[in-house]
Amino acid sequence: MGPNQPAKPSPGDIRIHARRTKGRLCESLIQSPLGGKFLPQREIIRVVARLNLEQLLPEAPKDLIDFIQTRASQVFSLSIRTLDLRGDDLEELARSFQLYITKDGSCSDPEGKFFCNSTDPAKANSGCCKHPPALNVFHTDLWGSTNFEKFLENQHSFFVPILEIGNLHQFNTELPNGTIMPFIWRDDKPRSGHFSTVSEVLLHAECQKNSDQAQICSCSKPPIQVKHVHAALKEFRKHPDEVTEGYDVNATFNLEVTTLGKLEGLNHDHLIRPMSAFKLDGNHYILLEWANGGTLRDFWIHNRDAHLQLNGKRIIEALTQLRGIIKALSTLHETKRHTKTDPLRNGIDIPSATTNMPAINLPSQNGYGDISDATHWRHGDLKPENLLVFKNSSWLGVLKIADLGLAKQHEFDTIFRPDPTSTKFTTWHYEAPEAETNTTGPRTRRYDVWSMGCIMLEFVIWLLHGYSGLQEFYDLKPPNHSYPRHTLYFMTQPGNDNNDSIATVNSIATYWINHMLDNDPECKQRTALRDLLLLVRDRLLVVDVSRRAPASEMLERMEKIADTAKTNKNYLFTGASRSKIEVPSFPNMNAPQQEAPHHQSHLQVGNPQARRSPQVSMLNTTWELITDDTVSTRLMNEAAFRISPDNSASLCTDCCALNLKGSDSISSNIVRVNFSSLDKKTEVCALCTLFLHICNISNPSIATHSIQLWRVNGGLSLDGLGEPVLSIYGIDFAKARSDPRAGYIRVGLPKLAATASKAHFSLLRQWLDDCDKHHKRCLPDETRPQPVETPTRLIDVGENDSPNVHLVDTHENHLNQTPSTKYIALSHPWGNKDSHDHYCTTQLNLSSHKNMIRIDILPNTIQDAIRVARELSIQYLWVDSLCIVQGEGGDFDREAKYMEAIFSSAYCVIAATCASGMSDGFLKDRPDRKIVKFERAGEAPLYICELFDDFQGDVLEGSLNRRGWVLQERALARRTIYFAESQTYWECGEGVCCETWTRMKNNQAEFLGDANFPKVATESPKGGQIRLYELLYKQYSRLQFTNICDRPLAIAGIEQRLIRAFNSQGGYGVFTRYFHRGLLWQRDTTLTSETMRPIPFPASQPYQVPSWSWMAYEGAIDFMELPFRKVDWEEDEVRSPWDPPSLGGSSSYLNLTGNTMWHTAETGGETRLTVIARDFFPTADIHIIYDGGRRPKDHIIKCVTVGRSKLDMKDNVEQTYYVLIIGRRGTRGDYKRIGVGPLPKSMIYFKDAKKVQVS
Q1: What CA–CA distances, in Å, run from 590 to 478, 1124, 1211?
Q2: What is the Cα–Cα distance from 1182 to 823, expressed in whole angstroms?
Q3: Contact, 1095 vs 1109, CB < 8 A?
Q4: Bridge partner list, 1236
Q5: Angle formed by the axes of helices 528-535 and 446-474, nearest 10°
Q6: Collapsed DSSP state (helix, strand, coil) of residue 226
Q7: Buried b / exposed e across 592-601, counting CB within 10 Å, b at 16+?
Q8: Residue 675 phi/psi, 5° resolution?
Q9: How far is CA 883 from CA 620, 832, 854, 1054, in A?
């Protein structure tokens, strides 16, 4: 040994060095959250590389040291961890490794199966041992049974699994006991469900392959910074929280692994990507990519006030992610992947799902035989908790569909598949109605479409109202006793045989959608969110599965919404502030919920004959269109109604191939038309001509490319979201009803009879006859007190060929003593006096009119009314201009009070809707309608024509119905015939009938069309009554008057009826029943130019309209948005004129005098309010809506607390007081109302309150 050579280590030094190395290895071990400690292979290599092997193996040649460092570092380190050896023994161990080991780890024995006690090397070399050759290393005398057991115990720390990311079948069998999984961290607060828990974990970067998250470090110095892999570890529970029959954890795990494996090939950006799956120690795990933003529900909760920062950028992100989710769902639904076996083709019997569905369930072991061999997938359990948020630089991030354990794949479409669904366990809230109505049959992919409709609605509610608004929506579930099975989206009732269930769309969801469409500034006009709500309402939340949109249609419409939003800023976002927008307040939840009329023709599944109650628990302005089979079957055989057998129109080849009927659940509801070729084909194709015509009318700027017409509501719509622009009719009743696709086509009359023709009047008589004989709701309600007094005067229309009529005094002729006297009342416009003949009865001609009135001198409108009365065989007619003495010495003031009796007692009312005035007339020729006859051999002909049935536009929005007096005439009439510009309509308690034989309904229209007004209101729950009451006055306040001073008079008849029906008192727009709410009307702020101007009533008027009534002003009103059941009304702060004298107690200071009942326009009654007035801070003006648009100058202004918000103890918000703002000039006299508003409690001075009068 030379002087500069290091001293050879002694055996003792080697043992000490080995023990230090063992300590260093133990310190480097990493604790796994699943149990045990481990050291990744590359980390072992780095530890071994840092060791001074020359000191551990001083006699070993270089090739042996290189072998240990490069090919046996794990087993060598494990041996040092296990054995306590001297230097010579370490070298002998290393040489045995070099002799038998071909690669590191090959001598491990994870399951401990192969060890033998032989230490004879000759026996090891003879091959008589049954274990793998590498295990011959244990034949040396260095290993005994004790040391080998230590080796087996420690081996899992040094030989950890390397996870192949994306390979779900890497571990086909359960991992050996003691296996340590290479996770370095696990969240100690996992998310728990009924059947699994999900934890965030970190997977060691060096123990995986193929992940794009990890940066794999090398052995270089310094080492590369390691980025470990975030993942979601889903652990399946062996025993769920709920005892669930049929639950098998192993089957559930295998099902999800199989499903995820098949779907992994889709590689869709909006589908969760699985990473690995394994079984360990009897537990079942799936490793998935980790959503760093949590679930969509988490995102909603963490951003609970996002509506206050709503902007176009956020809306477009939401639309983009919804489109991505829908695209992923559509990809699932349309995936076609064939494999060798097929449970249906091979005759495998798939057991039926149980009919007793628990709240949440998972697929049974026997119920997924079809999973491996199918072409169409469905998810089966879509909900916000199964949509994950992956954060990026954007606000929302990327949404992905997760929890695909319930996803099912089927070889054939559902209508060809007789087996029932095997997905037994889902979450109730988002499940489709067929989960209850079709428990024994198969489920379609459109089950997911319903769930997406629920999610999309909640997304819109969150965008508009935040999570607190969404929570209010969730809190509205009806009581359990109302329906056997219900969610916020559908309700079920037993069918006629008490076995089959009937499902209907829950009115809660419909109410919220329609309220947002009608009232929310972000949805009232055509916007992206409006179209999203229309898509949900009209195509997704549809009970009838065959009429529910498929995912492909949902995607196509969603793409159109998103694409339009990107290019049209006004369509994307209106910019309206969200700070003062109230959430919809659903009416009384203790009353049974009723299904609202819907845009679809068929809303219920089960018993199609189930009738809805006329109750109104929510308001809906959407018209429901149904075929009027009763009238159509009677008229079908009349010659006057037979369409002439015109030859079919000349059609081009493309049009002949169009699918206009729709069909079954497979067919799309889209009719595609090549727009660019329409111009060229219009000369030879009648249908192309009609398409081009309607496109130019509906959307002149439409692009010249292929367009889509959508089957909607018995017709065709250009965008599929709005009303139809074309109607489709069939007239052969027998053929149409035998066609299995007849539900898509209405039986009707496309070509109308000529005005005033025999056929025209025959239809009117049929309407009257049908109503008289079959409409029980339209008969006078004998249980309610009704005025039966006959009008003072009537016109006797005489014989059909008589040129004269005459006026009859009903008292002189004793007609007033005959309640059954039939007469028709005319509702008509007088028109401008310069353009129309205002022929009237006056004191000068009253006597002669009783003798004779020549028909030819009467204005055309009255002449037409006489002709209608004669054709209907009704002897008497009431017309205001002739039956009320007009002018000086007349009796208008007296007769005006009897309008309730006049219109409610009429046999029928005829409305001159198309007349501009008295000289115009209403029996006019109607414009021709463009009609194309479409006929194929062996099929009933169809008629495609311009949209014709539009009661909303033709009547309700017509010029006549904008007159103030007409609202009362419509509400009080039992039935009305409207002669409109395009056709004649009938309205009674059963809805609206069209000349085309179509019947129309919506429950808002039913309120005023009620034959026994206001029976619909009185039979509705309290919340419905309030909404109808507010609707009535809001609508009336927008109407026009020739004489604005008639504003209180023209609704007095309706008020009398309401007061009597509600057994209440009141007048001037306020009832004792809803007194406090009635006082809180406000100027309609949506009409920015409108202010409330006091009406200049003449001094001679015998009654005074109080300032607290909106009838004292010109202009439209609204009502404060007050939540139901969340306001305490101040009974002692404000007293109405109808209250009895105080009987002491806290309210004795009011000192009121008793009052008899009085109504609007009656004289002699006290109209003043007695109130407690208080001062308030001037800064409160930001909360006040002043009637005149601004705070009046030179006034003493005070507030009156009418109500205050209820607070829970847990609420950390300031209480709101709903106040009336009053003011007066000077220090004397009564106060007048000047405004209203919700004030924070801190803005009101509660000291020095003062009792005052408000007149």
Answers
A1: 7, 12, 24
A2: 55
A3: no
A4: 1185, 1220
A5: 120
A6: coil
A7: bbbbbbbbbb
A8: -65, -40
A9: 38, 20, 15, 21
Helices and strands counted in the chain (H then E): 35, 49
Q: Quick one: three-class SS letters along 1175-1220?
A: CECHHHHHHCEECCCCCCCCCEEEEEEEEEECCCCCCCCCCEEEEE
What length does the chain have? 1255
Rounded CA-CA distance 200/189 in Å is 9
Which residue bears the tokens 């109410």? 511
Distance CA 1239, CA 1241 (A): 6
Amino acid 172: pLDDT: 84
Instruction: Give me the amino acid identity at 568.
Output: N
Q: Are strands 229-236 and 283-289 parallel, antiparallel or unpaired?
A: antiparallel
* E runs forming strands in 153-193: 163-164, 183-186, 191-192
Pairwise CA distance, residues 993 & 765, whole Å: 13
> Encoding tokens for residue 650?
């000349």
CB 238 within 8 Å of CB 129 = no
> What local confidence, expressed as pLDDT, does residue 472 receive?
87
User: What residue type is assigned to position 888 of the chain?
Assistant: E
**Alpha carbon of residue 987 to chain centroid:** 30
For residue 20, which of 69, 60, 64, 55 has the smallest C-alpha distance? 55
Distance of CA 63 to the CA centre of its chain: 74
Residues with Cβ within 8 Å of residue 1003, at least 6 apart in sequence: 596, 597, 614, 616, 618, 619, 620, 1016
What is the 8-class DSSP label of residue 939? S
Averaged pLDDT, groups of 10, the chain, 1255 residues long: 59 76 84 91 74 75 84 84 75 82 66 51 55 75 77 86 90 90 88 80 88 45 60 82 64 84 80 91 91 91 92 95 94 58 28 27 30 56 90 94 59 34 54 81 84 96 93 71 64 62 83 89 91 92 87 90 91 88 67 36 29 39 62 58 60 78 44 58 76 73 58 70 75 51 65 90 91 82 58 93 93 72 92 90 94 95 96 95 91 81 90 93 90 82 84 86 83 90 91 85 70 71 76 87 86 82 82 88 77 87 88 91 85 82 34 44 75 92 90 91 82 85 89 94 90 92
- What is the model's pLDDT at position 347? 28
Q: What is the pLDDT of residue 1094?
A: 92
pLDDT score recorded for residue 324: 95
DSSP-assigned states of every residue in 388-440 = EEE--SSSS-EEEE--GGG-EEESS-GGG--SPP------GGG--THHHHTTT
Handedness of CA 536, 537, 538, 539 (dihedral sign): positive
Q: How far apart are CA 840 and CA 652, in angstroms?
A: 59
Phi, psi of 47 (to 5 degrees): -65, -45
pLDDT of residue 633: 61
How far is the C-alpha of 555 from the C-alpha of 535, rounded, in Å?
11
Say what the pLDDT of residue 682 is.
58
Taking CA atoms, 931 is separated from 694, 928, 934, in Å, by 12, 9, 10
Q: Which residues contact 79 (CB under 8 A, 6 or more apart)?
A: 93, 151
Q: Which stretches of 458-557 are assigned E, i.e. beta strand?
A: 485-486, 490-494, 501-505
Q: Which residue has the tokens 């000039």?
A: 1225
- Using alpha carbons only, give the angle 100, 104, 108 rounded to the nearest 5 degrees: 75
CA–CA separation, 372 and 762 (whole Å): 64
Question: What gap in Å lies between CA 797 and CA 805, rounded to an integer?
Answer: 5
| Confidence (pLDDT) at 636 | 60
**Per-residue H/E/C for 86-137:** CHHHHHHHHHHHHHHCCCCCCCCCCCCCCCCCCCCHHHHHHCCCCCCHHHHH
Rounded Cα distance, 33 and 183, in Å = 7
Per-residue pLDDT, 587? 58
Two tokens, residue 1162: 């009656």
